[in-house]
């Protein structure tokens, strides 16, 4: 459920299981602890194969942050038949679950998005994972499926940020700095904005951040581990390599199902390689989202872009479309 500015926010912190319907709506989640020098972290590959050189470079960057870096056993795997998958579904799920359940691991970095996150969700034992202490899960794109599942099943806030074994992290000093600050000094990254933000629909609203990649949210609709409703949420959306007509179909699907009913506001990120051009995409977003009667912000630099912003998910925030900002009312980590 959303919160108004000045209201206290109660985080979900264990206890008995929530009613399913409540657990699958936007609400403030348990924030994981921040990272400190010397912490042990693990890289996993829950989706597509990771380029070897970029994986090795990512390890060196994270070690340069003072972290003890481990690679999951199957992080370099390739599926024997399906070349777009980083190994078998059970192995990818097993690596993720083992990293989450290891009490010595303080954060889990996804090495790549791509394809395959939805395939491995049914191989995760969420009952066992609920017994583990919260920790940061970092990634974007296909990792949206994991952000949703961890919110619904574990009640844990996650981090929409660069996947480590790709150009969105390796060689991108700004993206690295944004992620590092969010993980180590989260109180310094509560005001998110970009140079070209503007209001598609004016206004100001409070809610809880959630979302990610539009196509992943659309594909996961009405499946296990997915959100029943956007009610009370500040929905963040981005996508890559989808033409305007397909973006239209996906948004229309989410709208016609009623999933978008009650959303507090929408923050739009980047739409890389989405033809015919960004003006058309912006007008499409206005056409589809303005009837909701909520603020819509265009132009936050998160998603498939260089120098991407890191966006904590599951955190109470204020969207100011006129001011061009998304302000977290609590840091993404504690």
What does this structure look like?
The protein has an 8-stranded mixed beta sheet. Strands 2-1-3-4-5-12 form a 6-stranded mixed beta sheet, with helices on both faces. Helix 9 (244-256) packs parallel to helix 10. The chain has helices spanning 20-23, 52-64, 89-101, 117-120, 126-129, 144-154, 173-184, 214-219, 244-256, 278-289; strands at 40-44, 68-71, 105-110, 136-139, 158-160, 191-193, 198-201, 204-213, 233-240, 265-272, 296-298, 311-313, 316-320, 325-328. By secondary structure, it is α/β, with parallel strands linked by helices. The longest helix has 13 residues, at 52-64. It is globular and about 50 Å long. It folds into 2 domains: 25-188, Rossmann fold (3-Layer(aba) Sandwich); 191-328, LD-carboxypeptidase A C-terminal domain-like (Glucose Oxidase, domain 1, 3-Layer(bba) Sandwich). The protein has 10 helices and 14 strands.
């Amino acid at each position: 459920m959303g919160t108004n500015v000045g209201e206290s926010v109660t985080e979900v912190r264990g206890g008995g299981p929530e009613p399913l319907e409540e657990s699958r709506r936007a609400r403030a989640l348990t924030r994981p602890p921040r990272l400190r020098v010397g912490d042990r972290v693990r890289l996993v590959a829950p989706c597509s194969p990771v380029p070897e050189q970029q994986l090795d470079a990512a390890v060196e960057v994270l070690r340069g942050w003072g972290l003890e870096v481990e690679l999951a056993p199957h992080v370099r795997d390739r599926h024997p038949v399906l070349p777009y998958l980083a190994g078998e579904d059970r192995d990818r799920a097993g690596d993720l679950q083992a990293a989450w359940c290891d009490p010595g691991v303080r954060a889990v970095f996804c090495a790549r998005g791509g394809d395959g996150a939805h395939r491995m969700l049914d191989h995760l034992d969420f009952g066992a994972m609920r017994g583990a202490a919260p920790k940061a899960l970092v990634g974007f794109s296909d990792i949206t499926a994991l952000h949703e599942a961890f919110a619904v099943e574990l009640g844990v806030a996650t981090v929409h940020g660069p996947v480590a074994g790709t150009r969105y992290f390796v060689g991108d000093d700004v993206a690295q700095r944004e992620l590092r600050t969010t993980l180590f000094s989260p109180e310094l990254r509560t005001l998110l904005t970009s140079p070209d933000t503007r209001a598609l629909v004016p206004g100001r609203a409070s809610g809880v951040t959630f979302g990610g990649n539009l196509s992943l949210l659309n594909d996961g609709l009405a499946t296990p581990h997915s959100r029943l409703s956007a009610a009370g949420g500040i929905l963040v959306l981005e996508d890559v390599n989808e033409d305007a007509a397909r973006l239209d179909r996906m948004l229309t699907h989410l709208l016609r199902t009623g999933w978008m009913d009650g959303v507090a506001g929408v923050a739009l990120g980047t739409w890389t390689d989405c033809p015919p051009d960004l003006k058309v995409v912006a007008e499409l977003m206005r056409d589809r989202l303005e009837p909701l009667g909520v603020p819509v912000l265009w132009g936050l630099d998160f998603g498939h872009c260089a120098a991407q912003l890191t966006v904590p998910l599951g955190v109470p925030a204020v969207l100011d479309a006129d001011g061009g900002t998304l302000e977290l009312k609590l840091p993404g980590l504690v």
